[in-house]
Amino acid sequence: MENKSKGRIKIFFTILEMTVVFSTAQVSAVVTFDEVNKKIFTPICASCHSGGFPDADLDLTQYTSIKSKEVVVPFDPQKSLLLQKVVSGEMPAGGDALSETQIQLIRDWISDGALDAPPAATLNLKSINPLFGSIQGGYFMDILGENFTPDTEVTLDNKPCTEKKVISTNQINCRVPKAEGPGKVDVKVTLGSLSSTLEKSFEYRLPLGPTFSALYTHVFKPKCIGCHSGNNPPHDLDMSSYETLMSHRRAIVPGDLKKSRLYKMVSRGKMPLKPGSSKKDDDDSEEDDEQQADPLPQQEIEAIAHWILQGALNN
Ligand code: HEC
Ligand code: HEC
Fold first, then answer.
1. Domain boundary among 181, 205, 229
2. 224: Cβ below 6 Å to ligand 2?
3. What predicted TM-score, i.e. pTM, was given to this entire model?
């Protein structure tokens, strides 16, 4: 008898717990300015912080005033002057300090992005950067769009993009997950029932192998041949084929990195140059007039080094 009722009570509590968990999972409502204004700013702060000449020139009943005075840093309660003032008890000046519940409401509002109105019922993924990377993952990606919140999830090929940082309602930064193989995958942002996808927008690539064909496809062709080909390439260095590249005696010296000009130039960031910045042959202009483009990524420099050390074969 006693056992039975204990069992019943236990079941009752289990159901209660499930209900609670379920409902908190569903309620992901964002705290907005309206709520904080109604519960705190208007009743407690407005006597000083509103009207024609508000104290500290800060009208707490006007969202635009709060924004322009920069007393809140969206998503970052710690750095927000407004929160510091109420936590320290400095504000409300002369009145009772805010209760922990009131302070928490302000904190939540700021962590939710210090929004004016509830986020629109749309989520918009516009672009990503970079557009490709090694299948090993581990590097960071910027995701640009609209109406992002701290709860917005990002996935690549349905795998979560980790260490997510919501920089603003328009930008998220996160670490690209590892992929099983090369290919283009969907990038997707999700918030509750909302989602937005850029289909096949990110390309996982195999790590660059130290072969001429890999280097030609991924480095020389896209980044060098624009200048280093044709009738009169700079320093007679024509990179449009294995034969022309190797016919330049100084550019590649198989097995010897120190003597290979090409390796020296890229490892020092001297090549590639920015398109359009090649020699102005007018006067004794200094070498530094030429603008260097972004240096090659480490992975590409290393692949060039290995290829040279392995004999710079036509492989
Ligand atoms: C009795 C008047 C009074 C009340 C009520 C009051 N404040 Fe203030 N507040 C001031 C004055 C005066 C200053 C400027 C001097 C200072 O910073 O201490 C100020 C400054 C501030 C600042 C700093 C603004 C800046 O740019 O430096 C913040 C933030 C602030 N108040 C928030 C609040 C909040 C939030 C409340 C309500 C919970 C509140 N205040 C209630 C008088 C008041
Ligand atoms: C925008 C045009 C441009 C691009 C792109 C470019 N180069 Fe050059 N490159 C030049 C010019 C101009 C020179 C001559 C520089 C000088 O005289 O200082 C040069 C010189 C060199 C030399 C020196 C050759 C020698 O005889 O000393 C090497 C090696 C070289 N480039 C390799 C590369 C590689 C590798 C890439 C691609 C990763 C690349 N360049 C991309 C314009 C370019």
1. 205
2. yes
3. 0.45
